[in-house]
């Protein structure tokens, strides 16, 4: 008999090790390509080969996750990711890894990680139900897990690659993916993940895909969330990929202060997620949600646009991280409450695809804007756009549904 907390602990552990493996790989793989080829263009090509299949397959995988069951999909995705990462190491060791083979293996990792991450997220509401904990707390714990992995993974990956080389980092990624599959197989009950209704067994992929699309179109709140987050994700991508590095170079502060700001924000985001997991279910969601965005959005852009001391910048990034820690727990709880369990995979995959749509464009648009107008005006314009997006949209009537649990 499974212990009440066993399911949610197993899902969170699987998320933790899989995300850690992904973050370590994000350090080790580009460095591996750069050191073995010396080509920045090939490094960028390999990064695209992993990210593009991740986004595309995750967008299309929802009906398959609902049909096959999230536990099975999660296990298979982790196995494929581990095998592909191990194959990169083995083929390179045997001097049998041309660029085409590397691109194919990296694309396989990306294509597997998309549905694998989606499947783990889909299991959160059932795990919360089995553990008898509020959805906000379960989503908050998932947020804590994600923030920790995003903070610890790059640090561990960078240190390991610096000391032992990129192949060791790729080996650690493969081990994390393999451990994730073991956790899913050993800790989660076989009936984890609600099976579809009997009539759904005879429905084809595109019919199930259409059901998810029709449901999302009929949920104004979920659509509003996806559109707003798509804009903020684009601005965040421009900030992290272009604006912050350009600021570090032009200001003279360099990568050390850039890394300090990122680390401070990551650590306080973990703290914010912990607080959200403890108390978010007792708070009104809408004011907390928009207050969190007020902290984590525009201030980061504004503080880089002025000549502020390092300690002031670190304080702003600390407040931004703390606010950011509340966002995903609230969004997760709203989505889990409003989407029927049997539609979670197909609806969440579409919503996340819409939310992530601007990320590949963020760096490109940010670079063009800085080249055309300069860093300062672009930082101020992005801060204004961030504030308008996250505050004016909150005045629309559908956001009132956020505090009405279903």
Q: Layout of helices and strands, plus pairs?
A:
Blueprint: H1 6-37, H2 40-60, H3 62-68, H4 70-93, H5 99-122, H6 124-131, H7 135-164, H8 166-187, H9 205-217, H10 220-251, H11 254-279, H12 285-296, H13 298-305, H14 310-338, H15 344-356, H16 359-373, H17 375-392
Helix pairs in contact: 1-2, 1-5, 1-6, 1-7, 1-8, 2-5, 2-15, 3-4, 3-15, 4-5, 4-8, 6-7, 7-8, 7-11, 7-14, 9-15, 10-11, 10-15, 10-16, 10-17, 11-14, 12-14, 13-14, 13-17, 16-17
Question: How would you sum up this structure, described in words?
Answer:
By secondary structure, this protein is mainly alpha-helical. Helix content is 82%, strand content 0%. It contains 17 helices and no strands. It has helices at residues 6-37, 40-60, 62-68, 70-93, 99-122, 124-131, 135-164, 166-187, 205-217, 220-251, 254-279, 285-296, 298-305, 310-338, 344-356, 359-373, 375-392. Helix 1 (6-37) packs antiparallel against helix 5, helix 10 packs parallel to helix 15 (344-356) and helix 10 runs antiparallel to helix 17. The longest helix has 32 residues, at 6-37. It is globular. The model has no long low-confidence stretch (mean pLDDT 83).
């Amino acid at each position: 008999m499974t212990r009440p907390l066993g399911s949610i602990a197993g899902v969170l552990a699987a998320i933790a090790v899989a995300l850690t493996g992904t973050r370590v790989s994000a350090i080790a793989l580009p460095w591996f390509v750069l050191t073995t080829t010396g080509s920045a263009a090939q490094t960028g090509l390999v990064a695209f080969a992993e990210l593009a299949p991740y986004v595309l397959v995750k967008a299309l995988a929802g009906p398959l996750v609902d049909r096959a069951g999230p536990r099975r999909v999660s296990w298979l995705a982790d196995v494929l990711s581990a095998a592909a990462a191990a194959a990169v190491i083995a083929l390179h060791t045997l001097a049998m890894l041309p660029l085409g083979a590397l691109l194919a293996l990296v694309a396989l990792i990306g294509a597997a990680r998309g549905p694998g991450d989606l499947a783990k997220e889909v299991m959160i509401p059932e795990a919360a139900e089995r553990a008898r904990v509020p959805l906000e707390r379960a989503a908050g714990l998932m947020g804590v897990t994600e923030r920790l992995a995003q903070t610890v993974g790059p640090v561990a990956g960078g240190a390991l690659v610096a000391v032992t080389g990129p192949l060791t980092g790729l080996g650690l990624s493969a081990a994390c993916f393999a451990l994730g599959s073991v956790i899913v197989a050993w800790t989660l009950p076989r009936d984890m993940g609600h099976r579809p209704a009997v009539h759904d067994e005879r429905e084809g992929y595109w019919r199930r895909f259409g059901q998810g699309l029709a449901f999302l179109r009929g949920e104004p709140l979920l659509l509003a969330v996806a559109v707003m987050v798509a804009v903020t994700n684009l601005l965040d991508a421009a900030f992290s990929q272009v604006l912050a590095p350009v600021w570090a170079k032009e200001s003279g502060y360099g990568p050390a202060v850039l890394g300090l700001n990122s680390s401070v924000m990551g650590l306080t985001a973990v703290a914010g997620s912990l607080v959200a997991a403890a108390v978010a279910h007792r708070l009104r969601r809408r004011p907390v949600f928009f207050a969190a965005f007020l902290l984590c959005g525009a201030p980061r852009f504004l503080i880089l646009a002025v000549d502020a001391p390092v300690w002031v910048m670190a304080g702003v990034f600390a407040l931004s991280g703390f606010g950011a820690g509340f966002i995903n727990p609230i969004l997760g709880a709203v989505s889990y409450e409003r989407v029927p369990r049997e539609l979670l995979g197909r609806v969440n995959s579409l919503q996340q695809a819409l939310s992530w749509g601007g990320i590949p464009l963020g760096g490109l648009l940010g670079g063009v804007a800085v080249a055309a107008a300069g860093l300062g005006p672009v930082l101020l314009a992005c801060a204004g756009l961030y504030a308008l997006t996250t505050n004016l949209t909150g005045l629309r009537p559908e956001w009132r549904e956020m505090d009405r649990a279903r």
